[in-house]
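Methods, example record. To illustrate the input and output format used throughout this study, we show the complete record for Maltokinase N-terminal cap domain-containing protein. The sequence lines were provided to the predictor; the line carrying structure tokens was produced by it.
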Amino acid sequence: MALLHRATLRPTKLELLTEWLPGRGWYDGPAGVEVVRVAGYRFDDPAGEVGVETLLVRAGDGPVHQVPLTYRGAPLDGADDWLVGTTAHSVLGRRWVYDACGDPVYAAALAAAILTGSGQAEEFFEVDGGQERRAPTMAIDSSGADAAELPEVGTPRRVVDADPTLIVTDTVELAVVRRLDRGTSPAGAVLTGTWEGRPTPLPLASAIRR
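The corresponding predicted structure is encoded as:
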């Protein structure tokens, strides 16, 4: 379960991405154009410390890109190259926003979603001391969920920032598709997604046990 706050962010996530995306080698869209959210999904951090959210975004009439993000209350050691920016959260204070492909919490969550079918986290807002569920904006599914025990993923040993972005750990190799209109068919067990206007499942990511 992801517990969300009705809060303001300055700058917003989309404002951060509007500045950050044009500098990515895999980005194929206009620069200087406001990024808009198409859909998204979240994973749980078992420790409850890190926000893990994947955004599907578009700039102008460009293609839809997949951008997984992690939100932290302090800098992640050794992850400066993956920092998207910082933002002021009206409830939680300063937050460090990372391209999640460089974050070990995301690697573990993605591996679980693909290899065990754990799915996306249900999202709830805190409202007047209670909780209000937020309807998902997309559905995800895994082709490779099995009964085998999920290996401990650990810290990524290597990350190749391309399309797809490759995340290599001691026990699993993950591939994250960035541009979703190319019909990419990654190897291994595959995570797929559908959203409004896109009823046919598209590959989002894949996993191969090592």
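Annotations derived from this record:
Helices lie at 13-20, 104-116.
The mean pLDDT is 90.
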